[in-house]
Amino acid sequence: MAQITINFTFHSGIKRQLFSNVRLSGSWDATGQFSSQWTEVPMLASQDETGCDAFNARVSFDSAQTGTTFEWGVLADLVAAPNSWVVVTEAPDENSNLCYRSFALAADQIQQDYWFVTGRRFGAQKFLPPGSAIPGIRFAVWAPHAQNVDVVFAPFDLANGTPTGYIADDGTGVDSAAAVVPLLSTGDGIWESDIATTPALANFAAYMNRLYMYRITNEQGATTYKVDIFSRNQVGRGGTNPGGAHYEGSYLDLDGIVSCSVVSDPDQVTEDFNDAGIVKETLITEEEFWASEFTAGQRPPQNLEDLIIYELHVGSLGFPSTAAGTFADAMAFVDELTDLGVNAVELLPVLEFDGDLQWGYGTSLFYCLQTSAGGGNQLKHFVRACHQRGVAVILDVVYNHFATVDNERSEWGYDSDPNVAPQDNVWYWYEGQPTDYPGNLSGGYLNNGSSGYTPRFSEENVRQMFTSSAAALLDDFHIDGLRVDLTDAIHQNNTLNANGWPIAGANNYGIKFLRELARTVKMVNPSAFLIAEDHTDWPAMTQSLDQGGIGFDSVWYADFYHHLIGDGNYGDNYAKLLKIAGYGGTTPLNMDYFTGALLATQYNKIVYHENHDEAGNDANTERTIVTAVNYALLIGDTRKSAEGRCRCVFGLSALSAGTPMFLMGEEIGAAKYFRYSDFFMNKEDLIGQRTGVGQFLFRFYQDLIGLVTVTPAARSTAIDVIYRHNDNRVIAFTRSALGQQLLVLASLNDAPFDHGYVIVTDPSLLSAGGWKEIFNSDAAIYGGDNVGNGGATLQVNNGQINAVIPAHGFVVLEKVS
Known about the structure:
Radius of gyration: 29 Å
Low-confidence stretches: none
């Protein structure tokens, strides 16, 4: 009988060697007949044209089955996870979470490929032709509606000056002396270069550092110039967007997301941090660079409960300059992090975003590090420096929208005019057809509560661009974890721009994407932290994938903040402890409201008393120390009271059962608004104030962080609230771990209970015996009045203890007998 032999290839798409004992599994039997009992076939290991691991198997099918749809996937052994299903991409059905590939048997379709990640498939990538001793280059782009795609280059001659780095809409700026590289349509909307038709592509080194753009003839026949969305480097280092007009200025002033892309080698790193020009002079292999990544006995934490996270915006460093801070400023701050004692730093987004004077939540290029901040090589130096000091690095990433400003050369209208055919705006979700929205073409786009339209999560290539970017951050940059921005925008909040109607399909595909992201991240690095900014209380976010959940490790816990701090426009259903205490007086506080929030911290929560949004960006919000005294002038006794309350709220956060995080500057009492629009005008001297006006608060942060870091009970998820009193503004709770118990007694009362405060609780909640005071937030070294128990051992009998509690402060006791 006639046979059709299909070659199956599983491309890892990643330099790390993740997979072993790889097997093809499909819906056929040993004779190649369709079967509901899937058959496994060993796959042979090799390297594909990207230089990454690939695995191949061949299966012969009876040609009489032509037209039959077969399904297949891949099994492999991972470290600590043998026999894993390693196809992470789900079926194209919004209601399915099954991960398999399918094809209809046909004589002319004899190759089936699956890419685990596509970060080295698309873009300007090293290409290894069979039998070649040196790598060539391949350009590849997804542009399903394009009529034609070429690669064009901008002039770059170091001997005769630097480039403008910009190509105008009429083609001005294209290097007429550089041969255009035509791309060929290879199916599925993918355009690739071909060495056979362009032999010069056989030498990657000849294209290294070349400035290029894609010249796309779009669906309507118009010629447009687009950046490489998979670019690893952009030439622009400023905030200027010429808007398609002729540009004669310096590339240093250009906005990165509209400037030319630069051919780069992700497998090399600059040995010299300051080697940051377009042409790098000190490149070494990534293996050589990362060889000194860790210090013996000082590895970064591997468990979420061990983290104490410092939220850092690189752009807000570099005091007193009003220019955006850079990775050089971040490098200078690494020792300050370790001096403070935190063991994790979370960077606000640093993937290429529009302009340079913003927080970074307008990302367009998900493989390129912000060029104006110093680019990818400098971020690698920062990560290595953190790791050498035992500090983990977490990155904020934004997958719920693309850049909303200056995005006309990136995702917006990539291969079709959105003013003519918005339904073909391939990176964006468009519901229905333009005729459904007469007079309002934008009506079909989706809003989701973020600052831009919803990505087209129904497209596998869109979802894989995001998941592959995450994999590149883990693999190429050795990032330890990701905080994913506003995930409720992805899985819940999609509504039609025309009328606000909910779009269930977009939510379902958003859920599909989040699962694919979790699978990808955990396969690349099982210990990577995956954190969601999610405000829905949806338990599936932190349920395992095996249990039908989304698979994230933790979520930001905004309710804790609103109960503890309470600035902003929030209703009376929140305790607002600090806000009310900041008014002065003796008004009772809703410690009972706060009790629920405190108990909920044990359930996979990131807790914070301040973050970037709540420090002045959201309406009626401000820095903690300002809320603490209701805008009163921070001098004398007022500052002393403010710092006492600040110490108390950080203590309640750090000693909760969640993973504590706080915004840069809290440790010295930063008081200026931290706003998206003018952060660069409100920088504070984070280093100088450590020995100046912020010295007492800084010492407190150091010591409490040190206590939490070395105390198992403080890092556990076991917590019990044993007492609360609204009128007295007192709360007491225990923390416990194997062989250790802590008791925290806290008060936001403005007068101390210096003659003792009797707490009576159920004896089963508070063990009888001796409890020794091991920490007092009111100690004189923290600027307090030294009201406490003097390190004494207090006795608990029948659930009762009598302890001194300082004004707006807390004490920690440990069970010792």
